[in-house]
Amino acid sequence: NIAPAAVSKLVKLALAGDFAAALVEHERLFRLFKDLFVESNPGPVKAGLAAMGLIHEECRLPLCNIEEKHRPIVLAAMRRAGVRV
């Protein structure tokens, strides 16, 4: 949900057998993939979607919003991956 077009591109490249191009796309997105798990899912994804203005950041118990110290990590990873924040 954070970068659907980029993930779709990566999958299409891999399915087409263009593994070199798929690897380039994967490496571009890897830090985002990693940093979206800085806390339990779905907190970081919801924080990212809220930063994009797509949702209101709200988690229902037992889930909770991410800690503020992790928010810059998620947003920086999104920016590096070319996601509009």
Summarize the structure.
Helix content is 56%, strand content 0%. The chain has helices at residues 4-15, 19-35, 43-51, 71-80.
Structure explained in plain terms:
By secondary structure, the protein is mostly helical. It is 56% helix and 0% strand. The protein contains 4 helices and no strands. It has helices at residues 4-15, 19-35, 43-51, 71-80. Helix 1 (4-15) packs antiparallel against helix 2, helix 2 packs antiparallel against helix 4 and helix 3 (43-51) packs across helix 4. The two termini are 13 Å apart.
Alpha carbon gap, first and last residue? 13 Å
In total, the number of strands is 0
* Rounded radius of gyration (Å): 14 Å
Q: Supply the helix-strand structural class.
A: mainly alpha
- Describe the global form: elongated
* Proportion in β-strands: under 5%
Order of helices and strands: HHHH
In the predicted model, the low-confidence regions spanning at least 5 consecutive residues are none
**Largest pleated sheet:** none
Number of helices: 4
Helix content: 55-70%
SSE order and pairing:
Layout lengths: L3 H12 L3 H17 L7 H9 L19 H10 L5
Task: Provide the descriptors you would attach to this structure in a database record.
mainly alpha
